[in-house]
Amino acid sequence: MSTTTPLNEVxxxxxxxxxxxxxxxxxxxxxxxxxxxxxxxVSAVYCQPDRRVGRGKKLAFGPVKSLAVEKNIPVEQPLRFxxxxxxxxxxxxxxxxxxxxxxxxVVAYGLILPQQVLTIAKFGCVNIHASLLPRWRGAAPIQxxxxxxxxxxxxxxxxxxxxxxxxxxxxxxYCDITSKETGATLHDRLAQVGATAINDFLKRxxxxxxxxxxxxEQQDNQQACYAHKLSKKEAEIDWxxxxxxxxxxxRAFNSWPVCFTYVGKYRLRLWQSEILDGHSKxxxxxxxxxxxxxxxxxxxxIQVECGDGKTLLLTQIQADGSxxxxxxxxxxxxxxxxxxxxxxxx
Length: 346
Fold this sequence. Notes:
Mean pLDDT: 89
Helix content: 10-25%
Low-confidence stretches: 1-14, 208-213
CATH topology of the largest domain: Rossmann fold
Number of helices: 8
């Protein structure tokens, strides 16, 4: 087993890093494309195995594999590193070592890397993580930041260790979260920030003597929080929550898994909403709050009372079997769903 060279060791000015890249989804593909566009050498790409998609359940390449195939870069797709062998009896770990990488760059790969993998590359492994570590370690940092009302997020370039997003921070790049931010829009913006951040990092690593990026800054573990993986089950709206919490959740879960609620027996997916001023009643103390109560519906949207007595206006909606549309469009064909309906939710 090879050992990792100390991170403050200097690469010569003329040296070109031999990079192995590990990632799977769109976010990773955007970063890989930028690395290649900046002239860096990528000798191999690692990504998750192909998945079956669509009604026909046909095997399909992920975004990173598609790009790698287009660029004629070798692709490796091990299920795991520690035990899996190919037809020649070579383990996935041995195969990775055969590429003799200077650096392994990991971006939303989706596979846990064992300790022996982290030490193969001369300069170890760096991860492009979509949060301001130590806040939002884990699988869904983009969505959890919006859901919890964070005002800022960003990209952290981190040296990987055996922990989950616990390694030293090598560089940090900030990004504001706007009041209209969705999981989809923030994902795309952070992919661009991540591409810029890693190319700046690689430029310094390959050309700068005694790079100030290394050995990096230790994370304050007491400030850490965990971004749990998203699930379809948690996307169902609980109208007992505050209007602000529900509005943030709708934005965070756009475009996956997409929040939903029920109108009688019909499911509605919720893409956009806004909080109306004031409470749903002229005197909020006069009657008990009724979470999920249908306050009104018209071409402006569907008004629903939330757990704090405020009203949320649902403006962009999708019925099962249909496309996403404005509330006005939905009500043109489905207004009968709401007549004599007391409340939304299961």
